[in-house]
Specification:
Blueprint lengths: L1 E3 L16 H13 L3 E7 L2 E7 L7 E5 L5 H10 L3 E6 L14 E4 L5 H4 L7 E4 L4 H14 L4 E4 L3 H11 L10 E2 L11 H16 L3
Parallel strand pairs: 4-5, 4-7, 5-6, 7-8, 8-9
Antiparallel strand pairs: 1-3, 2-3
Helix pairs in contact: 2-6, 4-5
Length: 208
């Protein structure tokens, strides 16, 4: 946002617009530092004043499993403006109308890395309720090394069983895995569980 300039129009400009070199460099620094900054330059009797605002891309949530309890998770995340991809191997569950605003993908769990660019996802929640599918999703997420947050729905006993099934691959998930997924809010209903899940991801994204 240019507030003062001798030979450049005042106003707000998006990244990528041809700008004076000082503004371009400030924009690059803001992106590299993921932080906004004030710019105030005086040179040869002229002044350039601007505010360079860093706007992070909305978080991208991957939901592995399109069962009924995935719907409130998608609804809660969409209310925050997040991007969402839902993937499931069951044709009966893959319905765009159930997940408005989300990208819905029909694919087998063991092909996750080939159908989804996991490097673009900030968080994933594994909640297919099918043990073999959840194991396949976790194996794919472990091999990809991304995203940094992986949530697993279900009790600790189910987590232990899945980790045993993954074997050595489980080591690649140890730091990233959040299970049981969600903050302990005393949630019982699908909507409250969704709130707990999205709240925990929000806190993790914010470093809290």
């Amino acid at each position: 946002m240019v507030h003062e300039a001798a030979d450049f129009s005042l106003g707000t400009y998006p990244a990528g617009t041809p700008l004076p070199v000082e503004l371009s460099e400030a924009g690059s620094r803001a992106v590299a530092d993921a932080a906004s900054m004030d710019l105030d330059i005086r040179a040869e009797g002229q002044r350039l004043r601007a505010f360079v605002q860093f706007l992070a891309a909305p978080p991208h949530l991957l939901v592995c499993g399109a069962g009924p309890d995935a719907e409130p998770v998608v609804t809660a995340a969409r209310a925050l403006g997040w991007q969402i991809t839902v993937v499931d191997h069951r044709c009966a569950y893959i319905d765009d109308h159930r997940f408005p605003g989300a990208h819905v993908v029909l694919a087998d769990a063991d092909t996750l890395r080939t159908v989804i660019d996991l490097g673009l996802c900030h968080a994933a929640v594994v909640m297919s309720h099918v043990l073999d599918s959840d194991a396949a999703y976790l194996r794919e997420l472990a091999a990809a090394g991304a995203p940094g947050y992986v949530g697993l729905l279900g009790p600790m006993a189910r987590r232990r069983r899945l980790m045993q099934e993954l074997g050595c691959a489980a080591d690649a998930l140890e730091v990233r895995l959040h299970s049981p997924v969600g903050l302990d809010l005393g949630a019982v209903t699908p909507e409250a569980i969704a709130l707990a899940i999205v709240s925990e991801i929000h806190a993790w994204l914010a470093g809290h």
